[in-house]
């Protein structure tokens, strides 16, 4: 199975990248990263968009405030046409990101 690296960088969010899909057809987009909140007991997340359309969210519940948390990796089934696309990662509600947070996104063909 081929893997295409789309993002591997520090925050803060939002992060927007363009990429070329290597084929037309079904793929899985995997998104990992870290986030935090200024308040305790919050659902935190990374909003994921593809070509301007919401595709999903990678989330984690945080009991503590001001602690960076790794989200549960999101695996999103997509059907892409071969050619150029845009991936956007952004803060979900109650979520903060900064230069201490890291993000990775890959496509599994």
Brief overview, please?
The chain is mainly β and 109 residues long. It has strands spanning 3-10, 15-21, 25-35, 42-50, 53-62, 69-70, 74-80, 83-91, 102-108. It has one domain (3-108): Sandwich (Jelly Rolls), CATH 2.60.120.
Account of the protein in words:
The protein has a single domain (3-108), classed as Sandwich (Jelly Rolls). It has no helices and nine strands. The protein has strands at residues 3-10, 15-21, 25-35, 42-50, 53-62, 69-70, 74-80, 83-91, 102-108. The strands form two sheets. Strands 1, 3, 6, 7 and 9 form a five-stranded antiparallel sheet that branches. A hairpin with a 2-residue loop joins strand 4 and strand 5 (53-62).
Please name the defining characteristics of this protein.
109 residues, mainly beta, Jelly Rolls, 9 strands, elongated, 5-stranded antiparallel sheet, 4-stranded antiparallel sheet
């Amino acid at each position: 199975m081929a893997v295409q690296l789309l993002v591997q960088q520090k925050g803060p969010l939002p992060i927007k990248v363009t990429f070329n899909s290597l084929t037309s057809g079904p793929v899985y987009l995997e998104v990992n990263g870290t986030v935090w909140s200024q308040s305790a007991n919050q659902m935190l997340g990374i909003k994921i968009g593809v070509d301007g359309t919401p595709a999903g969210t990678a989330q984690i519940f945080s009991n503590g405030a001001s602690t960076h948390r790794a989200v549960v990796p999101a695996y999103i089934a997509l059907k892409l046409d071969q050619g150029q696309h845009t991936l956007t990662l952004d803060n979900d509600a109650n979520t903060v990101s900064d230069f201490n947070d890291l993000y990775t996104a890959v496509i599994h063909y």
